[in-house]
Amino acid sequence: MKRQTGQDPEITRHWRPATQAIRGGTARSEWGETSEALFLTSGYTYDCAGDAAARFAGDQAGMTYSRLQNPTVEMLEKRIAMMDGAEACRTMASGMAAMSASLLCQLETGDHVVASRALFGSCRWLTDTLLPKFGIQTTVIDGRDLKNWEAAIRPETKVFFFETPANPTLEVLDLRAICGLARAHGITSVVDNAFATSVLQRPIDLGADVVAYSATKMMDGQGRVMAGAVCGTEEFIEGDLLKFVRNTGPTLAPFNAWVVLKGLETLDLRIRRQSENALAVAQFLEQRVARVNYPGLMANRYHDLAMQQMELTGPILSLHVGGGRAQAHALLDALQLIDISNNIGDSRSLMCHPSSTTHAGMEAEAREEVGITEDMLRLNVGLEDVQDVIEDLDRALGAAGL
Fold this sequence. Notes:
Blueprint (H helix, E strand, L loop, with lengths): L1 E2 L5 H4 L4 H7 L3 E2 L20 H9 L13 H14 L3 E5 L2 H10 L7 E5 L4 H13 L3 E5 L4 H7 L4 E7 L11 H10 L3 E5 L4 H4 L9 E5 L13 E5 L1 H15 L5 H11 L2 H19 L5 E3 L9 H7 L6 E5 L3 H11 L4 E2 L9 E3 L11 H7 L5 E5 L5 H14 L3
Parallel strand pairs: 4-5, 4-6, 6-7, 7-8, 12-13
Antiparallel strand pairs: 1-2, 3-9, 8-9, 10-11, 11-14, 13-14
């Protein structure tokens, strides 16, 4: 493939994020297409047997099999790495494939993981259920207090695992402090940055070693495909992670990669507008419901920390109606504009009841401990006119007796 003019690393490293999101990693075929080409192929041919052997030996550049390399997927990986300020990136079939691979590729029996208790439900299943099956000890802590991280460290501690902002409580953790503590003890920090993306927060700039994503969410942004990504050093991505991916196969399909490439082109615009809309909705809701969890609100306990490490506070918030599951479900059932859906990051406004959907797999006691109560609802604020969203919520709140 012919390299696009301007893809010299000495030039591209000076590109700003909005430019990287549109042009980063682009490689054009001999046809000179403006949009990224979609390569729907599982395998590749070679001019001679010697070339095939050389590629498999790593002595010759080129593609061998789409479980390992694909031109469309490679463009997406280069683009995400640039946006994150990372040396390299590997994409996966889903966000959970990315989370699983980022942990399992570097852990073995006898290792120890410290994880924040406020994680996505499936991530808590990884820490609470899957890792212990392989003899990997896990300690789940309240990650908001740095002393808890320090107290949990053992000689065999290999990884700190956390997300910020957290799903669905919107807890904000101190990236610089936690990642700094990890590095001081030779521990790898793995950060789930799906709620923010690199547009609003770059964990690597704050000391993170590995950053994992559900690209299904904001990166695609329109609820179309599943995708995940892991960013880090060249050594980690092309060493530990590549070995795991090569042999377990959580491969991202070229079509899905192409769709996410298209989504990245508008990510900066979308997430900023949705953050503005979310703040307006949060300000409305804090006058009507028992509690609103959104770090963009001045009264929120995480506001100052969020403003130190985030540009804006994203499109996701959660609220507590105060009347338990029945009232929460009543509000959902009264919505006319906002869809009942467990997805997030979509350009459409979506709402769900975490206790009975996204976090239903967690033990009830664990949900309560984190703050995922029966009266909690999670809201993804979309790109609709924000007044229409507020009016829909106003009607639904009234119908639910609020």
